[in-house]
Amino acid sequence: MAERPEGAAGQRDWAAIIRARLADTVPRHDAADWILPGLSLVDSEIYRRSLPAAPTPAAVLIPLIERQRTTVLLTERSARLRTHAGQVSFPGGRIEASDPGPAAAALREAREEIGLDAGLVSVAGYLPDHIVITGFRITPVVGFVREGFTLLPDHKEVQGTFEVPLEYIFDAANFRRERRRLIRSGEEVEFWDIPFAGHTIWGATAGMLLTLYRLCVGPLPFEHAAR
Q: Which domain holds residue 74?
């Protein structure tokens, strides 16, 4: 892996690293590239038979806030929702026929859910599609957000937002190992949660952040021991 650039006081410039890793990436929808959230591409292959065969295309925005130290913006879903109530997530949803592509869908959903102005977002690139057992194929769109924005959450969908320092996400000591059962096959799979300030980032949201971790840092330390 190439040498990582350093920022002030020897801190790694994660924003520069992410831009370099995602440069020239495009959405990849081939089933061979699908990732089960939280797993590597190799491990996802083991459970491919448990994944939906024809998932619904969706997209989320992974908003990286350009502060002195980059943060990740996350939402907490409304407790009134019938599915995934209170879950930590990224703004996003299904790709509509009127959307030119995943980036347009992710930016539209971010505007609708939290009032984020698309004009303040610079799309850096795309992570591989993540397939979730609820039947969606999610394209994660990574975008840098300039400061000066005002959020207006739609409280029918989002009860609040919060930010996590990217350096916290990129510290494997902050991950917690969990096991969950796949609905379709009943198999148990090892996933990772990320607790932060009273929140638990888990499921597809944690999985996408782990994919970004693997892209920028490398395999989790625990993965070396497991192989």
A: 13-217
